[in-house]
Structure formats: C-alpha cells, structure tokens
Amino acid sequence: MTKLEYLKKQHNLSSAKLSLAAGINYTLLTSIERGERKAYPKIKRRLAEFFNVAEDDLFNEDGSLKEIED
C-alpha cells in the first residue's frame, strides 16, 4: 500500500474526489497511482499540501509513490 492510498482511505476519498479537491487532472493522478508515471514537483506539492504532510512522506526522490506497511 502506498502512503497516498493510506491517506485516501483515512479521508474517505476516491481518486476522482481527490483530483477535484487538489486540482489535479484525474487521468494524471491515476497514472501516478498505478506507477505508470512519476509525479513532477507541482503535483507532489499539491498532494502534500492537501494532506498537510511533507512531500518526502508521499514520494520517493524519483517522484514515485512511497510504499508503507499495511
């Protein structure tokens, strides 16, 4: 499970709701969630600010999502 998945569950958010609330394109967000794309700085910042966490809590250095223990 990624940290983003965990936070979405905690806030009862779907990818569609998160994309609207954070101002991120839905297709881009789901591509990042599936590991097909890396998040660029603007997206990392928006998601971190939305969840009030550090970017390093959500993303690896290369822009991929961080995995956490279930």
Would you mind describing this structure in some detail?
It comes from Caldicellulosiruptor naganoensis. There is one protein chain. The protein has 70 residues and is mainly alpha-helical. The chain has one domain: 434 Repressor (Amino-terminal Domain), CATH 1.10.260. The chain is 56% helix and 0% strand. It has helices at residues 3-10, 15-22, 26-33, 41-51, 55-58. The radius of gyration is 11 Å and the shape is globular. The model has no long low-confidence stretch (mean pLDDT 96).
The CATH topology turns out to be: 434 Repressor (Amino-terminal Domain)
State the shape. globular
In the CATH scheme, the class would be Mainly Alpha
Let me know the number of strands. Answer: 0
Percent of residues in beta strands? under 5%
Which sheet architecture does the biggest sheet show?
A: none
CATH superfamily: lambda repressor-like DNA-binding domains
User: What's the average pLDDT?
Assistant: 96
Low-confidence stretches: none
H and E string: HHHHH
Instruction: Please estimate the helix content.
Output: 55-70%
Q: Using the 3D structure, state the CATH architecture.
A: Orthogonal Bundle
Distance between the termini: 6 Å
Organism: Caldicellulosiruptor naganoensis
Domain HTH cro/C1-type: 4-58
Protein name: Helix-turn-helix domain-containing protein
InterPro entries: Cro/C1-type_HTH, Lambda_DNA-bd_dom_sf
